[in-house]
Amino acid sequence: MIPSREEAELILREAENCNPGPWGNHSRVAAHCAKEIAARCEGMDPDKAYILGLLHDIGRKFGTRHLGHVADGYTYMMSLGYDEAARVCLTHSFHDQTTDGYIGKFDVTDQELRMIQERLKELEPDDYDRLIRLCDSLAGAEGVLDIEERMEDVRRRYGSYPQEKWDSNLALKKYFEEKMGESIYEAVDRDGYRSFT
Fold first, then answer.
1. Of 129, 58, 30, 138, the residue nearest 88 (C-alpha)
2. What is d(CA 173, CA 65) in angstroms, rounded to the nearest whole number?
3. R_g (Cα) of the chain, nearest Å
4. Model pTM score
5. In the predicted structure, residue 196 carries a pLDDT above the cut 80
6. CA dihedral angle for residue 143, residue 190, residue 188, residue 163, rounded to 10 degrees
């Protein structure tokens, strides 16, 4: 279950009031990318993709946490009854359904880490999980970025970027380009789209 688009936008605005920062516009750019790509892929719902993109980082509402934002987002969305949104809060940060290649601090309790790891084992990724993971790698706060430039930026900020995750993101780009029959960057209007609150 997911909220309506209007409710998702309200949830994001309220979350930004709790913890202002560029993550809100990053989420809007991810939502834009998800909607445009899903609209070009048979069997995918662009409205659902937009909502999931909008809410993938909603755990940031609760403060500046790294792995903790995954646990916070999952728990928050589940508390509202939005299990599909909770799912992408969980899956968007992991290229192989494990926490092994996570980039950032493991700022979670033992209980939160167990919850994340157990849920990941239970889930079989679907195209929405894959799409939001891809869009997370395309979305800057101001607009759409080149995926390799975005990953290089993450590498500079955190000091590393696992090669398996890098390769996985490029494979996702290719996967969706083949489904659409066009370039990701053309589909999402990389050069023209800008995020505004």
1. 129
2. 27
3. 15
4. 0.95
5. no
6. -80
